[in-house]
Specification:
This protein has seven helices and two strands; from the N terminus they run ααββααααα. It is mostly helical. It has one domain (2-25, 73-198).
Length: 199
């Protein structure tokens, strides 16, 4: 599940950057925004929203979602972000689209990251035997690298020339992450029983 999330999340530096470069209207008040500058949107939202999420989890108290549920939320928001960019890709036939579409995409991805990434690191340290924490942290980061590998494969499928190609590409990424979110949500009660310390 982790690898699937990072596969979608790492599109920010691959397919979404190409989308920004080729298909997004980047001229604001006569100044053309470099496509690479869109990469700063997600870190901005991360800094802005991280304290809010920390407050939210504390505020919820005993109603705070379990770790597996947060993972499912992370995948869900990643799926929504790609449903948004898939829809935005259908508007490119009439010309370049508003940069606000990518702002929304990065906002949704940041929410997904805040649901999943800190929880993953925390869960690994909670569940791993003391002598194996380092190894299991390595496995966690291995899952990220696997996601990065598949992100590269997705990049190879980027085609902004063929009609409907981006809708299919981003739509498939959205469907895969939605499916993973649903499967994980269904498995959450079982995972909670098997790993009570992680909830």
């Amino acid at each position: 599940f982790s690898a699937l999330f990072w596969m979608s999340f790492e599109q920010a530096s691959t397919t979404l950057t190409l989308f920004a470069d080729r298909l997004t209207n980047r001229v604001v008040f006569g100044w053309e925004i470099p496509a690479s500058l869109f990469q700063s949107i997600e870190p901005f939202f991360l800094i802005l929203l991280a304290p809010a999420f920390a407050w939210l989890w504390i505020r919820l108290g005993r109603r705070e979602p379990s770790s597996p549920a947060k993972f499912a939320y992370g995948l869900f928001f990643a799926g929504v972000s790609f449903a948004v960019v898939a829809f935005a890709s259908t508007l490119t036939g009439a010309g370049k689209v508003s940069p606000l579409w990518l702002v929304l995409v990065y906002l949704l991805q940041t929410i997904g990251e805040l649901c999943l990434s800190p929880v993953g690191l925390s869960t690994v340290t909670k569940l791993s035997p003391a002598r194996m924490v380092g190894l299991m942290m390595g496995v966690w980061f291995l899952s990220i690298s696997i996601g990065d590998y598949f992100a590269g494969l997705v990049l190879g499928l980027f085609n902004d020339k063929a009609e409907g190609a981006l809708l299919r590409l981003f739509g498939i990424v959205a469907l895969v992450t939605f499916a993973a979110a649903i499967v994980l949500a269904l498995l959450t009660p079982l995972i909670k029983k098997m790993t009570p310390r992680a909830t």
